[in-house]
Specification:
With about 250 residues, this protein is an alpha+beta fold. The chain folds into two domains: about 5-90, Winged helix-like DNA-binding domain superfamily/Winged helix DNA-binding domain (Arc Repressor Mutant, subunit A); about 95-245. It has helices at about 5, 15-25, 30-35, 45-55, 75-80, 95-105, 110-115, 120-130, 170-180, 195-205, 210, and strands spanning about 30, 55-60, 70, 120, 140-145, 155-165, 185-190, 215-220, 240. The chain has a six-stranded mixed β-sheet. The protein has a three-stranded antiparallel β-sheet with strand order 1-3-2. Helix 9 (about 170-180) packs across helix 10.
């Protein structure tokens, strides 16, 4: 698409927010994109079509369920993200969906709005790491809580991990212990699918008490696992281990 075509498409703040979301998360399925933009699902197609006319996005069905949208090279340039532009890998679709659903669920909570929290995506974390320091585990996201008078968690940074399938217990424990021992993280929040929940819970229980107190384990919100109506996104996941984030 030519730059001239992009100039003819007028973008609103909602459009910009949606493009940034797709870029930060490798792509987004239409149902979660609708939830993020507070649109009816049948309105997402026309919105994405406008982005495609500008040359900023591509879209298509990548597997069962709703269609997906992802950014083109022009879209990455326009948003200033600068990440590689590629269709989301089929093997990562479930994980990408789950992480985005977790973001939307967390953002729906009153504490998020009151504390003016913001999401620092895995893509941004990886891009910010120097080449020599990329051997450590990168969480699926960070949550940053600004230091404001009304903020309950002002100044804190939380690590977020999304688990769909069970890793070996030793591997899960090593990753968890590494995150919780990092000075930058006040809390490590694990959200796990039913298959992964027992291993994650055992790993958290095996940590020393001081470390275990800084881990919160929950079940994933329902929309993380399948295409659900928008109202399900704010459904409370099952609480498993109570930490600071779960109160």
């Amino acid at each position: 698409m030519t730059g001239q075509a992009a100039d003819t498409v007028r973008l609103s703040q909602r459009d910009i927010d949606g493009l940034l979301l797709c870029g930060e998360h490798y792509g987004a399925p239409y149902d979660l994109l609708a939830a993020a933009l507070e649109l009816q699902q049948d309105r997402v197609g026309p919105v994405v079509s406008r982005w495609r006319r500008a040359g900023y996005a591509a879209a298509g069905r990548l597997g069962p369920g709703p269609a997906w949208c992802w950014l083109t090279r022009a879209g990455m340039t326009a948003t200033g993200l600068g990440f590689p532009a590629a269709r989301p890998a089929l093997g990562r679709l479930a994980h990408i969906r789950a992480v985005l659903a977790v973001r939307l669920w967390l953002a729906s909570r009153p504490a998020w709005r009151d504390g003016q929290a913001w999401w620092h995506s895995e893509r941004r974390l990886r891009a910010a790491r120097p080449a020599a320091g990329r051997d450590g585990h990168v969480p699926d996201a960070e949550i940053h809580w600004p230091s404001i008078p009304a903020g309950r968690y002002g100044g804190q940074v939380w690590a977020v991990e999304v688990e769909l399938t069970p890793k070996p217990l030793a591997r899960t424990t090593t990753i968890m212990a590494g995150l919780v021992s990092a000075a930058r993280y006040a809390l490590v929040v694990y959200l796990a699918a039913p298959a992964a929940l027992p291993v994650v819970t055992r790993a958290a229980s095996s940590l020393p008490a001081a470390q275990a107190a800084r881990v919160a384990v929950r079940g994933l919100p329902p929309a993380a696992l399948s295409a659900e109506p928008r109202s399900v996104l704010i459904t409370e996941p099952r609480r498993v281990v109570t930490g600071e984030a779960a109160r």
